[in-house]
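Internal ticket - ligand job 155, fe (iii) ion:
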Amino acid sequence: MKDDPRKTDGEWRAALSPEQYRVLRQKGTEAPFSGRYCADHSEGTFVCAACGNALFSSADKFESGSGWPSFTQPVGRENVALESDVTHGMVRTEVLCSRCGGHLGHVFDDGPAPRGQRWCINSAALGLERVQLPAADPADPSGPEAEAATERTFG
Ligand code: FE
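stdout (C-alpha coordinates):
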Protein backbone atom coordinates (compact mmCIF):
# COMPACT_ATOMS: atom_id res chain seq x y z
CA MET A 1 0.00 0.00 0.00
CA LYS A 2 1.37 3.36 -1.09
CA ASP A 3 0.96 5.23 2.19
CA ASP A 4 1.81 2.34 4.55
CA PRO A 5 4.08 3.89 7.22
CA ARG A 6 5.71 0.52 8.03
CA LYS A 7 8.26 0.36 5.26
CA THR A 8 11.74 -1.10 5.34
CA ASP A 9 14.69 1.17 4.62
CA GLY A 10 14.94 -0.21 1.09
CA GLU A 11 11.25 0.40 0.51
CA TRP A 12 11.55 3.99 1.69
CA ARG A 13 14.55 4.51 -0.58
CA ALA A 14 12.54 3.22 -3.52
CA ALA A 15 9.39 5.18 -2.65
CA LEU A 16 10.97 8.57 -2.03
CA SER A 17 13.05 10.92 -4.17
CA PRO A 18 16.74 11.07 -3.15
CA GLU A 19 16.18 14.46 -1.43
CA GLN A 20 13.01 13.26 0.34
CA TYR A 21 14.88 10.15 1.52
CA ARG A 22 17.87 12.17 2.75
CA VAL A 23 15.64 14.52 4.76
CA LEU A 24 12.88 12.18 5.98
CA ARG A 25 14.86 9.00 6.63
CA GLN A 26 18.39 10.32 7.23
CA LYS A 27 17.46 13.49 9.13
CA GLY A 28 19.02 15.69 6.48
CA THR A 29 18.36 19.41 6.05
CA GLU A 30 17.72 21.00 2.67
CA ALA A 31 19.67 24.11 1.74
CA PRO A 32 17.91 27.30 2.89
CA PHE A 33 15.67 29.00 0.31
CA SER A 34 15.97 25.90 -1.91
CA GLY A 35 12.68 24.25 -1.04
CA ARG A 36 9.51 24.44 -3.04
CA TYR A 37 7.30 25.67 -0.20
CA CYS A 38 9.57 28.29 1.33
CA ALA A 39 7.96 31.15 -0.61
CA ASP A 40 4.74 29.33 -1.56
CA HIS A 41 1.67 30.94 0.00
CA SER A 42 -0.94 28.61 -1.49
CA GLU A 43 -3.86 27.62 0.71
CA GLY A 44 -4.05 24.00 1.69
CA THR A 45 -2.90 21.31 4.07
CA PHE A 46 0.75 20.30 4.23
CA VAL A 47 1.06 16.54 4.58
CA CYS A 48 3.97 14.17 5.22
CA ALA A 49 5.65 13.45 1.87
CA ALA A 50 6.31 9.89 3.05
CA CYS A 51 2.97 8.76 4.47
CA GLY A 52 0.37 11.47 3.80
CA ASN A 53 -0.26 12.32 7.46
CA ALA A 54 -1.72 15.84 7.77
CA LEU A 55 0.90 18.05 9.46
CA PHE A 56 0.50 21.81 8.97
CA SER A 57 -2.07 24.26 7.61
CA SER A 58 -1.24 27.12 5.26
CA ALA A 59 -3.26 29.28 7.71
CA ASP A 60 -0.44 28.80 10.26
CA LYS A 61 2.41 29.46 7.80
CA PHE A 62 4.41 32.64 8.26
CA GLU A 63 7.39 34.38 6.70
CA SER A 64 10.28 33.70 9.07
CA GLY A 65 13.10 34.74 6.77
CA SER A 66 14.96 31.55 7.70
CA GLY A 67 14.79 29.94 4.27
CA TRP A 68 12.55 27.10 5.34
CA PRO A 69 8.75 26.82 5.48
CA SER A 70 7.77 28.03 8.95
CA PHE A 71 4.58 27.46 10.90
CA THR A 72 3.23 28.66 14.25
CA GLN A 73 1.75 25.25 15.12
CA PRO A 74 0.99 21.81 13.66
CA VAL A 75 -2.61 20.90 12.71
CA GLY A 76 -2.72 18.72 15.83
CA ARG A 77 -0.19 18.03 18.53
CA GLU A 78 -0.80 14.30 18.02
CA ASN A 79 0.18 14.58 14.35
CA VAL A 80 3.82 15.21 15.21
CA ALA A 81 6.36 13.69 17.61
CA LEU A 82 9.12 15.65 19.34
CA GLU A 83 12.59 14.47 20.33
CA SER A 84 15.61 16.13 21.84
CA ASP A 85 18.36 16.58 19.24
CA VAL A 86 21.87 17.35 20.49
CA THR A 87 23.71 16.89 17.17
CA HIS A 88 25.77 19.62 15.46
CA GLY A 89 26.75 21.18 18.79
CA MET A 90 23.25 22.49 19.44
CA VAL A 91 20.37 21.52 21.69
CA ARG A 92 17.28 21.52 19.51
CA THR A 93 13.87 19.90 19.44
CA GLU A 94 13.43 17.64 16.45
CA VAL A 95 10.00 17.37 14.81
CA LEU A 96 8.97 14.01 13.36
CA CYS A 97 5.84 12.69 11.67
CA SER A 98 3.94 10.78 14.36
CA ARG A 99 2.67 8.27 11.82
CA CYS A 100 5.80 7.14 9.95
CA GLY A 101 8.59 8.60 12.11
CA GLY A 102 9.96 10.67 9.23
CA HIS A 103 12.19 13.63 10.12
CA LEU A 104 10.47 16.94 9.33
CA GLY A 105 12.61 19.66 10.91
CA HIS A 106 12.89 21.43 14.26
CA VAL A 107 10.75 23.63 16.50
CA PHE A 108 12.18 26.77 18.12
CA ASP A 109 10.80 29.14 20.74
CA ASP A 110 11.49 32.33 18.77
CA GLY A 111 8.24 32.40 16.78
CA PRO A 112 5.59 35.12 16.65
CA ALA A 113 3.14 35.86 19.46
CA PRO A 114 0.88 34.57 20.84
CA ARG A 115 2.28 31.01 20.63
CA GLY A 116 5.90 32.00 20.28
CA GLN A 117 6.82 28.87 18.35
CA ARG A 118 8.56 28.52 15.01
CA TRP A 119 8.12 25.13 13.43
CA CYS A 120 10.95 25.10 10.89
CA ILE A 121 10.19 22.37 8.37
CA ASN A 122 11.95 21.05 5.25
CA SER A 123 9.95 21.46 2.03
CA ALA A 124 11.23 18.05 0.95
CA ALA A 125 9.40 16.44 3.87
CA LEU A 126 6.09 17.94 2.80
CA GLY A 127 3.35 17.55 0.25
CA LEU A 128 0.68 20.19 -0.24
CA GLU A 129 -2.96 19.33 -0.74
CA ARG A 130 -4.89 22.14 -2.36
CA VAL A 131 -8.63 21.57 -2.29
CA GLN A 132 -10.44 23.09 -5.24
CA LEU A 133 -14.09 23.60 -4.45
CA PRO A 134 -16.30 23.08 -7.50
CA ALA A 135 -17.82 26.19 -9.04
CA ALA A 136 -21.61 26.16 -8.95
CA ASP A 137 -23.20 25.52 -12.34
CA PRO A 138 -24.95 28.83 -13.17
CA ALA A 139 -27.39 27.03 -15.47
CA ASP A 140 -28.47 24.61 -12.75
CA PRO A 141 -27.61 25.90 -9.27
CA SER A 142 -29.70 23.15 -7.65
CA GLY A 143 -27.97 20.41 -9.64
CA PRO A 144 -25.95 17.58 -8.10
CA GLU A 145 -22.91 18.77 -6.25
CA ALA A 146 -19.67 18.18 -8.06
CA GLU A 147 -16.88 16.53 -6.13
CA ALA A 148 -14.25 18.81 -4.68
CA ALA A 149 -10.94 18.03 -6.39
CA THR A 150 -7.75 17.66 -4.40
CA GLU A 151 -4.43 18.41 -6.02
CA ARG A 152 -1.35 17.14 -4.22
CA THR A 153 2.17 18.30 -4.98
CA PHE A 154 5.44 17.45 -3.26
CA GLY A 155 8.31 19.62 -2.13
FE1 FE B 1 4.78 10.43 7.77
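Auto-summary: Helices lie at 9-15, 18-24. The mean pLDDT is 92.
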